[in-house]
């Protein structure tokens, strides 16, 4: 019996050490399973972070009382601002206004189309509404959120991308949609936003009506890329798990090859975010969400849904990192002078990982569970041995 217990204790130690050593090694391998290595095509990138920053400023200054809350004049003025900006690129820039209502509040998605002669479509999306209540703000929870990062940053990147890509549109073999969502940010977190509203109202409404915006018989969607909170200081994107992994991995690798290794880390936080891309994933379109870790404040992004989500925490560099990565991604896949690119197109592969917090919980739980099972086995064997001893007497 003593020999058995000693051997079991040795087994416990071996299993415990093996789990501690092997698990952290296996997890990064899973992260890289869908990571198809390639080389960015050599082309000059024109996205300018300073110009994008000026577009964030414009949105914040449109209405600094209600900002861009659904149903307000500020939201309407911002939609008009987008139309004006795109018409400055080309007075004939085609756009569609997608009107809908949530609890009798009038809302509006705005879609701009470029290169409509191509039947394959790439969607670049962002939300532009700002949150009605700063529900994470310990001082002013009922005040509106400026939404400099959470909304305005992604919208600014889309405008600058439209200007840059328009100048090269004749070299791009794809139709591009620049899609601005209303009513994304009004759900419940620490407290209600607009009463009775859920998250991502605009994107869900849009996908519900999506067949009204393209020709189902001869147009197809290649992918959808969502930009959300892409302009804050110390940009660091996460591995978002509703995203199509082959598409998100390609964006990460594209950014890393541009030298943006801090924004696109090799060991990103893994998280699952209900965002505007989910409706497109559910529709069958490969989609990826470029988003930061905004929870667990103040460790990551302490300004989320507070009145401090303002211009003082917006970085020209972060905007440029995001914009140049998406610009490079588009040239990699659609610039017509090359024929050697080996990315992950058509982005059909998808491999989901455990959220980082849940993974850590599992790593801790497994050794505890193994030890508990072994102890139960030892006790069971000890009980049987004791019974045998009693019978022998």
Molecular structure report:
The protein starts with a helix and ends with a helix. The chain folds into two domains: 2-33 and 362-392; 49-334, Zn peptidases (Aminopeptidase, 3-Layer(aba) Sandwich). The chain is α/β, with parallel strands linked by helices. The longest helix is centred in the C-terminal third of the chain and has 37 residues, at 356-392. It has nine helices and eight strands. Helix content is 42%, strand content 13%. Strand 1 (94-102) and strand 2 (105-114) form a beta hairpin. The mean pLDDT is 87. It is globular, with a radius of gyration of 25 Å. A six-stranded mixed sheet has the order 1-2-4-3-5-8, with helices on both faces. It has a two-stranded parallel ribbon with strand order 6-7.
Average residue pLDDT: 87
Order of helices and strands: HHHEEEHEHEEHEHEHH
Output the CATH topology of the largest domain.
Answer: Aminopeptidase
Biggest sheet strand line-up: 1-2-4-3-5-8
Which regions are unreliable across 5 or more consecutive residues at pLDDT < 50? Answer: none
By oligomeric state, this entry counts as single chain
What is the general shape?
globular
Q: What's the architecture of the largest domain, going by CATH? A: 3-Layer(aba) Sandwich
Give the total of beta strands. Answer: 8
Helix content: 40-55%
- Report, as a whole number of angstroms, the end-to-end distance: 17 Å
Structural class: alpha/beta
Number of domains: 2
Q: Biggest sheet: strands, sense, closure?
A: 6 strands, mixed
């Amino acid at each position: 019996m003593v020999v058995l217990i000693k051997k079991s204790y040795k087994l416990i130690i071996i299993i415990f050490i093996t789990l501690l050593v092997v698990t952290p090694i296996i997890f990064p391998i899973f992260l890289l399973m869908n990571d198809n290595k390639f080389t960015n095509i050599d082309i000059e990138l024109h996205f300018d972070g300073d110009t994008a920053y000026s577009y964030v400023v414009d949105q914040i200054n449109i209405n600094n009382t209600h900002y861009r809350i659904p149903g307000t004049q500020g939201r309407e003025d911002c939609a008009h601002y987008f139309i004006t900006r795109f018409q400055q690129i080309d007075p004939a820039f085609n756009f569609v206004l997608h009107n809908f209502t949530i609890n009798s509040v009038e809302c509006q998605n705005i879609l701009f189309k470029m290169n409509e002669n191509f039947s394959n479509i790439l969607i670049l999306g962002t939300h532009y509404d700002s949150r009605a209540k700063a529900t994470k703000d310990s001082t002013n929870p009922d005040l509106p959120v400026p939404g400099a990062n959470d909304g305005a940053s992604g919208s600014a990147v889309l405008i600058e991308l439209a200007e840059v890509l328009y100048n090269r549109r004749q070299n791009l073999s794809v139709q591009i949609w620049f899609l601005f969502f209303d009513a994304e940010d009004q759900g419940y977190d620490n407290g209600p936003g607009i009463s009775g509203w859920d998250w991502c109202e605009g994107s869900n409404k849009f996908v519900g009506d999506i067949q009204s915006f393209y020709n189902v018989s001869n147009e197809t969607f290649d992918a959808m890329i969502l930009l959300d909170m892409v302009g804050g200081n110390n940009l660091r994107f996460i591995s978002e798990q509703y995203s199509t992994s082959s598409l998100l991995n390609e964006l990460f690798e594209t950014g890393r090859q541009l030298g943006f290794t801090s924004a696109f880390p090799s060991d990103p936080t893994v998280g699952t975010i209900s965002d505007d891309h989910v409706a497109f994933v559910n529709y069958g379109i490969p989609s990826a969400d470029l988003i930061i870790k905004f929870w667990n404040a103040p460790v990551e992004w302490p300004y989320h849904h507070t009145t401090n989500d303002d211009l003082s925490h917006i970085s020209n560099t972060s905007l440029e990192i995001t914009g140049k990565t998406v610009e490079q991604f588009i040239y990699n896949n659609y610039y017509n002078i090359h024929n050697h690119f080996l990315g992950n197109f058509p982005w059909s592969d998808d491999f989901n990982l455990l959220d980082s917090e849940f993974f850590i919980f599992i790593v801790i739980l497994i050794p505890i569970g193994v030890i508990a099972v072994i102890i139960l086995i030892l006790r069971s064997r000890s009980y049987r041995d004791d019974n045998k001893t009693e019978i022998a007497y």
